[in-house]
Amino acid sequence: MRPELILIIAIYLAFAVVEAVRLGLFHKPEERPGDWQVELASTISLLLITQPGIILLVNFLGQAYFPTAGGLLHELHPVWQLAALLIIDDMSQYWWHRLSHQIPWLYKLHRPHHNAEYMSVRLVYRNNVFYYWMMPGIWGSAVLIYLGLGWVYAVYIVVKLTVTTGAHCAVPWDEKLYQIPALKHVMWLLERVISTPSTHSMHHGKHLADGITHYKGNYGNLLFLWDLLFGSARITRSRPKHFGVEGLADTTAAEQLFWPLVRSSASINEQVKRTASPTKR
């Protein structure tokens, strides 16, 4: 097994253990039937099928049609390689995520991520299986890997998973750090650069009326900086008391995973009612 994969698994498990010890990882009080099936299926689908499949497909097409481009950027300075990954992967994911909350049919693919009524490391890869196949950042990263950014990507993806897993973790690790006077300026900067439990939990809030929930913003995955640059940031250092989706019909695990191939009757009725109006999310 590749070293970065071992490290990624270790980081994820570390957050999972902390969550399990502090708040419980399985059988959450807010959990509903089908939640763990959606999380398990979507995670396995992404990690074992979608992402490897896209990387292999891009490599195959590259060797078939652009053989001289393989490794073309290998000698590029690591700083520029990292910049390319941040823009092509992380910034594009910011816009993909933002569009997912603005385009109704795309939100149907992303809704499983918000359908859970709790925060947890379990949510990191919780999405419709087609959501990731269509994500520009994964395809862009695969192209960059073919062009020779392999080892820099390995470092980058470890850092990115650490941040995104920490931002979804039910344990608010940033709360204690805010209370340490010596870290006042460090935390001010940190929460404006990367996603934290506070800023990202606001995005998962259920009730807009609570004054904290900000599901039309705080879209950043690794970098929260994109939200600041593109006007979608809100920082309160607070967490909503309730998570999930508000004002939408219930859905099934199968629909969450395989829409539009699978549609529940409730979803069909909801679509008819909302044909003339945009989604609330």
Write a concise synopsis of the structure shown.
The protein is mainly alpha-helical. 58% of the residues lie in helices and 0% in strands.
Helical fraction:
55-70%
User: Rg, please?
Assistant: 19 Å
> What integer is the average pLDDT?
93
The helix/strand order is: HHHHHHHHHHHHH
Tell me the strand percentage band: under 5%
Low-confidence stretches: none
Question: Secondary-structure blueprint of this entry?
Answer:
Elements: H1 3-22, H2 35-65, H3 78-100, H4 104-115, H5 129-133, H6 136-146, H7 150-168, H8 173-178, H9 184-193, H10 197-203, H11 225-229, H12 253-258, H13 265-273
Helix pairs in contact: 1-7, 2-6, 3-6
Overview of the molecule:
With 281 residues, this protein is mostly helical. It is built from 13 helices and no strands. It has helices spanning 3-22, 35-65, 78-100, 104-115, 129-133, 136-146, 150-168, 173-178, 184-193, 197-203, 225-229, 253-258, 265-273. Helix 2 packs across helix 6 (136-146) and helix 3 (78-100) packs antiparallel against helix 6. The longest helix is centred in the N-terminal third of the chain and has 31 residues, at 35-65. The model has no long low-confidence stretch (mean pLDDT 93).
